[in-house]
Amino acid sequence: MSIKTIEGALTVQNARFCLVVARFNSFVVESLLAGAIDALKRHGADEADITIVRVPGAFEMPLALERIAAKGDYDAIVALGAVIRGGTPHFDYVAGECVKGLAQSMQKHGLPIAFGVLTVDTIEQAIERSGAKAGNKGAEAALSAVEMVNLLRQLP
Ligand code: INI
């Protein structure tokens, strides 16, 4: 007896992606964006099917993203940002609201939303995760979006 496995492939055709990108900490986020675009293109996405929407910071992401998700123009959304801990509780509010809002939109619309928002303690950790020794989390998020688009196309 063989086990039936359903999983999403890592190459995609005819899929529209929206990248929602925070301007805050742009020195890191622009590298996440470059990684995400590169990954999408190398895994089959057409440049004409990729849209970038810029927001001020991670706190504003849920509002823009909910509007985009509700419109239904995209097969997946990739959220890209960086929340870096400072000396105050600000980090917890911004990161918490961001992830909560994104998760709510994903469930509400049944739409893949990849979480490419770094939540780190130091600038060094952010740099490591945006194209240095810990990889590029923007590229990883984009790949998750590709996989989920393909998975949802297969699920009944
Ligand atoms: N926004 C971020 O995307 N990352 C951060 O690290 C950050 N910090 O630390 O303050 C941040 N703050 C701005 C926030 O997202 C809003 O844009 C701002 O509060 C205006 O609403």
Summarize the topology.
Layout: E1 17-22, H1 26-42, E2 50-55, H2 61-71, E3 76-84, H3 90-109, E4 113-120, H4 123-128, E5 130-132, E6 135-136, H5 137-154
Bound molecules: 5-nitro-6-ribityl-amino-2,4(1H,3H)-pyrimidinedione (INI).
Give a verbal description of the structure.
This protein has 156 residues and is α/β, with parallel strands linked by helices. The chain has 5 helices and 6 strands. Strands 2-1-3-4 form a 4-stranded parallel β-sheet, with helices on both faces. A two-stranded antiparallel sheet has the order 5-6. α3 links the parallel β3 (76-84) and β4 (113-120). α2 runs parallel beside α3. It is globular and about 55 Å long. The mean pLDDT is 97. 5-nitro-6-ribityl-amino-2,4(1H,3H)-pyrimidinedione binds next to β3 and α3.
The number of E-state strands comes to 6
Bound molecules: 5-nitro-6-ribityl-amino-2,4(1H,3H)-pyrimidinedione
* Radius of gyration over C-alpha positions, nearest whole angstrom: 16 Å
Major sheet: arrangement of strands: 2-1-3-4
Order of helices and strands: EHEHEHEHEEH
* First-residue to last-residue Cα separation: 22 Å
Specify the number of helices: 5
What global shape is seen? Answer: globular
What structural category characterises the helix and strand content? alpha/beta
Instruction: Tell me the fraction of residues in β-strands, as a range.
Output: 15-25%
Which stretches of 5+ consecutive residues score pLDDT under 50? none
Give the proportion of residues in helices. Answer: 40-55%
- Mean pLDDT, rounded to whole units? 97
The description of the largest β-sheet is: 4 strands, parallel
